[in-house]
Amino acid sequence: MATIVIDAGHGGFDNGAMYQGRKEKNDNLDLALAVGNLLKQKGYDVIFTRDSDVYQSPYEKAQIANEAGADYFLSFHRNAAEQDNTYNGVQTLIYSWDDPRAGQLAGVINEELEKLGFQNLGIEERTGLVVLRQTEMPAVLIETGFIDHDKDNRIFDGRFDEIAEAIAGAVEQTVPLTQNAASQERRDDGDCDCGESQRKENVVYGVEAGRFGYHTTANFLAEQLEEQGFSSYVFEDGGVVHVVAGKEDSLDEALKLQQKLRNLGYQTLIIAAKDEA
Are the CB atoms for 159 and 90 separated by under 8 Å? Predict the structure, then answer.
């Protein structure tokens, strides 16, 4: 089961940004708990850095995720400007584009929240933030609108449940569940998710590196694979968009390719298909 650490930014004596008596730490906690509970319902293993109004240093937060061996880290925050009602919109922060998984998740979160009325301010690298720099897994910091902008607060309050569902849905689109873990055990034994057709001579093997609900995200991953030197293709089946690397003539070659992708941090599944070439 994929493990996701959910971090509510600030807490305790650290209120975060404030606006007309509103405290960022409270908004962060409310949304973090809502998203985390939705992810539990979807089958993810969820760990909260905090579930009450307590303070933790950013290093403590990163340590919780690292010690848990988490697969992803999501930190919830709200933005603020120097002057009230100046800027508005949602933005996600990542440590670096070197790990495409964080960028993929951040992009889908932005897209889903934009549908609810937030302005999409994009993705930004922040190498100086401890929770992004010290975590050993893909990490995303979500700035869910500006706490000092009335429009963003209206969206946050009026569409709170939809916001939580949108973020949880973005995770579901980009982070595979552990049902792949059972498949992983089979692959370690030399098997694959191929069916009877794998024994036919006209079958080629590929390594699935991701499955998504949207072509935009799938194409992003396919392009990333190409940039890393892997051939890739995208196909849709039953409303799910699959991203596959390689077309190998033998299972042994597919297993070698799979290991290369694993070493880069991809969660993978070997598949087989008829060679249409």
Answer: no
Cβ-contact 156, 149 below 8 angstroms? no
For 156-183, write each residue's pLDDT tens digit: 999 999 999 999 999 999 998 863 333 3
Instruction: Reduce the DSSP state of residue 129 to 3 states and report it.
Output: coil
Distance separating alpha carbons of residues 145 and 77, to the nearest angstrom: 9
Query: What is the DSSP annotation of 41-64?
Result: HTT-EEEES-SSS----HHHHHHH
Q: What angle do CA 273, 275, 277 make, to 5 degrees?
A: 145
Identity of the amino acid at 269: L
Radius of gyration of the chain (CA): 20
Q: In terms of C-beta density within 10 A (0-12 exposed, 13-18 middle, 19 or more buried), how is residue 35 classed?
A: buried
Residue 164, Cβ neighbours under 10 Å: how many? 21
Distance separating alpha carbons of residues 46 and 1, to the nearest angstrom? 10
Burial 214-249 (b: 16+ CB within 10 A, else e): beebbebbbebbeeeebebebeeeeeebbbbbbbbe
Q: Which helix (H) or strand (E) holds 87?
A: none
Q: Specify the pTM.
A: 0.66
The helix/strand/coil state of 230 is coil
Convert the pLDDT of each residue in 107-120 to its tens digit: 999 999 999 999 99
